Amino acid sequence: MPLSALTGTRLRERRLALGLKQAELAQRVGISASYLNLIEHNRRRIADDLLTTMAQALDVPLATLQEGHAGQLVDGLRAAAAAVPGAAAEVERVEDLLGRFPGWSAALVELHDRSRALGRVVEVLNDRMAHDPHLSASLHEVLSAVSSVRTTAAILADTEDIDADWRARFHRNLHEDSERLAQGAEALVAYLDASGQGQDHTISTPQDEVESWAEACDWDLAHAEDIAQSPHLASAAGRVLAAGLQAQYATDLAAIPTPAFNSAMAAGADPLTLARSFGVPVLAAFRRMALRAGSGFGLLICDGSGTLTLRKAIAGFSPPRFGAACPLWPLFTALARPETPVEAVIALPGPQGARLRARAFAQVRYPGGFRGPELREAAMLLAPEPAGAEPALEVGPTCRICPRPACPARREPSILQG
Amino acid sequence: MPGRVLLIEDEPNIAEAIRFILSREGCEVVVEADGARALSRIADCAPDLVILDLMLPGMSGLEILSALRANPETLGLKVLMLTAKGQGRDREAAERAGVSAFMAKPFANAEMRAKVRALLEG
Fold it and tell me: What is the distance between the terminal CA atoms of chain A, rounded to a whole angstrom?
């Protein structure tokens, strides 16, 4: 049955516009007036064939009565209610709410979406303030200048018998420090101001450049911007990394051609079966599944030190840009147990936190043979997981910005704990 | 409060201001911007107190403090460490390494005088 909470309202508006009584319309379409009343107040769902008959009786296109947007609003209202569990919102009456107050409902969903977006910005900024070496150095520069100005100014104010040479020297120092302070403050403001705007000059590492470049083409790297010309790839290191990723992407694509890949996915392939079917490493199957336009999968890859070498984000989960990640991620479980598939449902903290299905796998290489080093690489594929009975492993982004106070894996206090 | 102070600080204007303040209190102040060089000069300098900035280029204040505590001749030397607000974890590390006192930047000059006096006379 099609559902639209607005369908009933739209029916009612159209009927009133035509000057029809409920009983008249009900008779034309072969239902009782009381049933029509329930439909118009969104208390009953309306069957496909009845809706078609209604559209004919009211002389409107069927699509006018079907409102896809309403379904999104219902989902949005449910998400808003779930974000505030203490409010005990009457979720079972969500369609009633939407039918009666569509404008208020849209406003509520819009506010909830904005709240989620702001939460993500706060997470990114907290992460940056905690771990960004550039910001740390900038703040130290400003603090040093402030310290010097304060001490020097106090000397000049408090020392009545200071001789002329010292006075001149301190005046000169004050002038130097005030200029340094002004420049440092301007640089900090510009840096922080840019952090929430997604502008290119916020990019601070070659890896960030590569991810920005890949996101610009929705990870369809065969159609990415030219590496030499891309404004996202500002550094030589970023261009080298991008070229490596693009070459690997081409190799993965050749090994698992799109038609065969689509057939395998339609047949319910998972990374292991996909890898086995095409005779490729499991991590190649992970990349093939995640790195394509509209894939819906997030992907994190780390090296043997646990350093994230690739981050394809997924809604509700922002991996840290700086510093070490949460040690509870299945990614690191896999890293410690190479060639062993690890699967878990994970839950991120807070109202913005997503529930995701994580599948992780690690591989070991010996590029130098027996005498060479052992190189490990692990990947974690992330997909949205609907609410269900399966218990979720509670993880975080990184300790510094994770609000779980009693986490057994905590390395350091969180700045989010009062 | 007469005494010899070795000030290890890489910010020249702060170093100059501290030297001025403490000199007027009767201290002899030796300034060194480089941590490794300060360590090599410490025997000749024979200070009564070391004022040590936490964030120094090259050898950090924490490394210098550890080196001082590892040397029997400087094991008991009083060390006043200058830190920035928000360096809580570094302060904890400095406490474990045996720092005598802290002072957060930016500081009041009266606070600097009082801390130095307390350390020299204590």
Answer: 49
